[in-house]
Amino acid sequence: MRKINVTLAILLLSASLLQAYIQTQPDEKLFQEAKILIFDKMWKKAQDKLERLIERHPDSSWFSQAVFYKAKCLEEQRGKEMEALEVYKSYIQLEERSKTLAEEAEVSVIDLAYELYEDGQRSFLREIERKLYSSNRVVKYYAAFKLSYIKDKKVAARAVPVLKAIAREGEDDEIRDRAKIALLRVDPSALRDFEEERSESRVSVLHLRVYKVDKRDPVFSMDIPWALAD
């Protein structure tokens, strides 16, 4: 009986300590409250909660997510596009960042930069152009597709090399077809040039290989286009 009482006392003490620990985590409380507000699309109120977390708890394990979702809240508020873009960029620079959220942040930077460019703030074009050189294929491809919608065809043409690469190397028919449509949107001649390049690369070739009886590798080899072989 005494053993049972001791065990119950330990369990009650553990529960009390756990409850006290939970109650002393204001950063988590702020984050969870902000997420509920985000779910309800109450962007400004959620932003306020997240800013409080960021300012008061810079060492919190929720800090990096708070930065990302602050950017999301700003993005959803008219007139806050520039600020949202900068906060997304600051998230991308954080060491403690999620790979998935970082990719989403990169895509949002492209969308916001496009909106700002279309609103007459031409300097934001550079934000999209930089993404054409991203090591992340999703980001790189998205930047090229977005750039293809710009009305100034000289500007849109900067996406052509990446669009050609997508049309040639894309992982499935759908994305390759999207790249061809984007090329057509930018400049019909760009698509024509691409098709000509592809047809030239598919020229039939006669492969000549000469082997010695006792050798595995050829001692002589030559590739001759069939047009010349005739």
UniProtKB/TrEMBL annotation:
InterPro entries: TPR-like_helical_dom_sf, TPR_rpt. It holds the Pfam family TPR_6. This is Outer membrane lipoprotein BamD-like domain-containing protein.
